[in-house]
Amino acid sequence: MEIATYALLATAGFIAGIINTIAGGGSFLTLPALIFFGLDPKIANGTNRIAVLFSSGSAVATFYKHGHLDRTMAWRLTWPTMLGVPVGSLAAVYLPPNAFEPVFGLIFLAMAVVLAKNPKRIAKSMTPDPSSHRFITPVFFAIGIYVGFIQAGMGILVLLAMSWTTGGDLLSGNAIKNWVAFLVTLTATVMFAIYGMIDWVPGLVMAAGNLLGGFAGAKLAIKKGNQLIFKFLIVVMIATGTKLIVSAFW
After folding, report:
1. Distances (CA, A) of 103 to 45, 94, 184, 229
2. What is the pLDDT of residues 5-15, one digit of tens each?
3. Which of 235, 116, 128 is nearest to 139 (CA)?
4. Nearest CA among 19, 27, 22 for reference residue 206
5. Which residues are CB-contacts of 41 (< 8 A; sequence separation ≥ 6)?
6. What is the rounded distance in angstroms from the CA atom of residue 8 to the CA atom of residue 37?
7. Which distant-in-sequence residues (6+ apart) come within 8 Å of 133 by Cβ?
8. What is d(CA 218, CA 118) in angstroms, rounded to the nearest whole number?
9. Are 248 and 98 in contact (CB under 8 A)?
């Protein structure tokens, strides 16, 4: 039974690694899997960061190898996000994990509808108003707080924030998203480890699946391009928004 459970964790990690790499929201698969394994929700929230760390790391390596990573822009978005992560991580230690869920769930569902009605807004390229550059720091600092708190759906928020503030090709944006995810998740993982909120054995088993999923997802995104990422984005936003709202009230 234990072998079967570990196999389930690794499989969930692999699928989530693909989802996280292409769009985001894979944690809504891995978190329930960890809880099913028997972890307390707060411990599962911390343990899940190990898996995300591995999938985003493998994805970054793949995108970088194929020349799709703009490191200058990646660092520009990373530092304000990382500043927000400790704030969110501390909140996750002391506040109930569903504190932010209803609001973000509604935001995800609303944005899914907006994007589905106007796919050109993000499917082909991201072309923001030049004046929106001044919002990069506060927007990504807020994302960092959210990532430190719950992580799930980070990729969606980063891609949407980039479409508004920085622009660029969606494939390159996806590479940057995974770079940001790797570094901020590393920060959050350290925070949760300090507070003893990580169960390392199931976390590393799931991370092995995430590692392979990250490679597979990055290659799939490079091969299929923006349209695949857009379709994944819409599906995951709807699923993420629904999951956030349902878990907050039931």
Report:
1. 19, 19, 22, 24
2. 888 888 888 88
3. 128
4. 27
5. 31, 35, 97
6. 9
7. 165, 166
8. 25
9. yes
User: b/e for 127-157, b at 16 or more Cβ within 10 A?
Assistant: ebeeeeeeebbebbbbbbbbbbbbbbbbbbb
Q: What residue segments make up the domains of the chain, in order of their start?
A: 2-249
Tokens describing residue 210: 């995430």
Q: What are phi and psi of 95, to 5 degrees?
A: -110, 155
User: Which residue bears the tokens 């998203």?
Assistant: 177
pLDDT for the residue numbered 123: 47
CB proximity list for 169: less than 8 A, separation 6 or greater: 125, 126, 226
Helices 154-165 and 226-249 pack at an angle, to 10 degrees, of 120
Largest separation between any pair of C-alpha atoms in the chain: 57
What is the C-alpha separation between 45 and 198, in angstroms, rounded? 8
pLDDT in tens, 94-105: 776 566 667 667
Radius of gyration of the chain, Cα coordinates, nearest whole angstrom: 17
Quote the CA–CA distance of 206 and 32 in Å, as a whole number.
12
pTM, 2 dp: 0.70
Classify residue 121 by its DSSP letter: G
Residue 237's Cβ-side half-sphere holds a number of Cα atoms within 13 Å equal to: 23
Residue 135 CA to residue 141 CA, distance in Å, equals: 10
Question: DSSP assignment of 156-171, as one string?
Answer: HHHHHHHHHHT-B-HH
